[in-house]
Design brief:
Layout (H helix, E strand, L loop, with lengths): L2 E6 L9 E7 L4 H17 L5 E6 L3 H11 L6 E5 L2 H7 L8 E6 L2 E6 L5 H9 L1
Length: about 130
């Protein structure tokens, strides 16, 4: 996964297991609305090995203070894009954010809005 900088959390290898890549931005009101939900999803599935990774293509100087201010309200891994957005959003011709991808063993199992069907998609990927 092409990441320029890990802002919060340890680096994640998405080649095995179930992960959620969620593309977002600090300036995006729907993205900010989905942050508490993603934290709940991370807590709900953490014991089953699922990792949420929020990916922003903004500058580190914008994202890092935002993430620090959010604190425990944003309790999942956050990264600065280094090409992963093009790899996923470009491949599926997605232009709007927030947008999430459930990745199982390195392959996309589902994609859509993080507030619509994400929990069910994760459950399906875990089967």
């Amino acid at each position: 996964m092409a990441v320029a900088h890990w802002v919060k959390g340890d680096p994640v290898d998405i080649s095995s297991g179930v992960h959620v890549l969620e593309f977002w931005a600090t300036w995006c009101p729907p993205c900010r609305t989905s942050i508490p939900h993603l934290t709940e999803v991370q807590e709900k599935f953490a014991d089953r090995g699922v990792k949420i990774i929020g990916v922003s293509d903004e500058k580190l100087g914008t994202v890092e203070p935002f993430v620090e201010k959010m604190g425990d309200k944003m309790a999942y891994t956050v990264a600065i894009d280094g090409g992963v957005k093009k790899e996923y959003m470009g491949k599926y011709k997605i232009g709007g954010i927030p947008h999430a991808f459930v990745v199982k063993d390195g392959e996309v199992a589902w994609h859509g809005h993080p507030m619509a069907g994400l929990d069910d998609a994760i459950e399906d990927a875990l089967k």
